Amino acid sequence: MTTQETWLTQEAYDRLSAELSERAGAIRDEIKNRIAQAREEGDLKENGGYHAAREEQGKNEARINELSHLLEHAKIGRPEVEEGVVSHGMIITVHYGDEKPDAFLLGIREEAATTSHTVYSPGSPMGQAIMGTRVGETVEYTAPNGKVLRVTIMDVTPHN
Asked: If residue 59 lies in a helix (H) or strand (E), which one and from where to where?
């Protein structure tokens, strides 16, 4: 994993911290108990409950690792930038050529619970292309499907 810092709102940080505590505590213990009960039933090769619990354990441990890494490298708030400059935690309104303008939050997927806007990652092709641009600027980027898109920054406002 890279040690890239991630910007989170205080609300998102608190929500993710609570999820980490729940997963590392009560959920982990519940899964361990189900595995122990399934082991007592005997033959593990044909024990569907055991295999399901082990799979759930793997998914839970992966999410614990993901949350731990995210929170360890998280910054609360948003970076200091000039007004009208695209950055993390901003609502960006863009215009794609002939299409109507589109507004979205530039942030990570974990912020989706804190907004009614669509969330685009700063690490996405568009996120990378628009990061640091100003209102009125037009940039091109290559979408994952290989198509070159042109987008104009119409507005940049802080989220919350």
From this structure: helix 48-72
Residue 16: is its pLDDT beyond 50?
yes
* Cβ neighbours of 140 (radius 10 Å): 9
* Tens digits of residue pLDDT in 109-138: 887 777 788 889 888 999 999 999 999 999
Q: Give domain limits for the chain.
A: 6-76, 90-158
Enter the CATH code of domain 6-76. Answer: 1.10.287.180
Q: What is the mean pLDDT of the chain?
A: 87
What is the distance between the alpha carbons of residues 111 and 127, in angstroms, rounded to a whole number?
15
Q: Is 46 helix (H, G, I), strand (E, B) or coil?
A: coil
Query: d(Cα 45, Cα 129) in Å, to the nearest integer?
Result: 51
Name the CATH code of domain 90-158 (choices 3.40.50.720, 3.10.50.30, 3.40.50.970, 3.40.350.10): 3.10.50.30
Number of Cβ within a 10 Å radius of residue 67: 18
Q: Are 73 and 13 in contact (CB under 8 A)?
A: no
